[in-house]
């Protein structure tokens, strides 16, 4: 019945049968750790059954009963020595594999790496290939045997990027960048998804990772260039709007620095980027005169959704009256002029 249940479960065993070097290393660590733990678990299960049966109160032969028994050095050595040895071995393995599989550590492999900038959207994935100037939605194509260097961020809520067959899982977070390095050792199509619940469209936030031979990968790039549209800042803002079950589509060109603007939460015209916000905060903030400039630093209200994934109406911040804010002061806030940033009010710029 257990075999039948496993057969009907529809489970995929990519973790145990990976198609990439990183996944194989993680599989080995999982198997080794499990076997080491079974060294303790199996004897404990055996003793939990054997001792109560052997020394039950109604047994006929009680000649081995020793009411004066209090301590055994042999038992103490087994009870404490075994777990200590296992913990030392696990610690040693964890040290090795933690450094070997550091997601930020580039893979030491031959072949030119493929750079991929991944953005988790509601509820789809955008993959930008800066080397080729193209992008795809809900389809990740990689060449077999070449390292893949990922930079990841999120447009709104936190997600996790996961391709179990290749190994590794890493968070993508708004306003931040994470990294991951993978490689596909064989061709094939491998399931990828967000492994972190992110709202009503989460179940459809999946993508195919297609590992191809080098020639086929070059052909895929040409296909994207032939069929794709333009991923400008304006078209990205349209793509960013929540959708469910988004079909695969391509972009033949990508605006320069788009990923950095997504990470900085400043794709929209007139928005201050995250690094600029942090610079202003570090310099002491904008003071009272910075209050009218609040829309420049707001991000979440325009992306608020209801329980069904629909955008909630928000005020048109661009229509707010900002005429009484000082242009020179705003420029100072958004530049790297440390002296200007330290001024509390525009009047200080005039020596008042």
From TrEMBL:
SUPFAM superfamilies: Cupredoxins (SSF49503), Cytochrome c oxidase subunit II-like, transmembrane region (SSF81464)
Stretches assigned to the Cytochrome oxidase subunit II copper A binding domain: 111-223
Membrane-spanning residues: 29-53, 77-97
PROSITE patterns, A to Z: COX2_CUA (PS50857), COX2_TM (PS50999)
Domain of life: Bacteria
Annotated keywords: Cell membrane, Electron transport, Lipoprotein, Membrane, Oxidoreductase, Palmitate, Respiratory chain, Signal, Transmembrane, Transmembrane helix, Transport
GO CC annotation terms, alphabetical: plasma membrane
Domain Cytochrome oxidase subunit II transmembrane region profile residues, every copy: 7-105
NCBIfam families attached to this UniProt entry: CyoA
Family, per entry: Belongs to the cytochrome c oxidase subunit 2 family.
Name recorded for this polypeptide: Ubiquinol oxidase polypeptide II
Species for this entry: Mangrovicoccus algicola
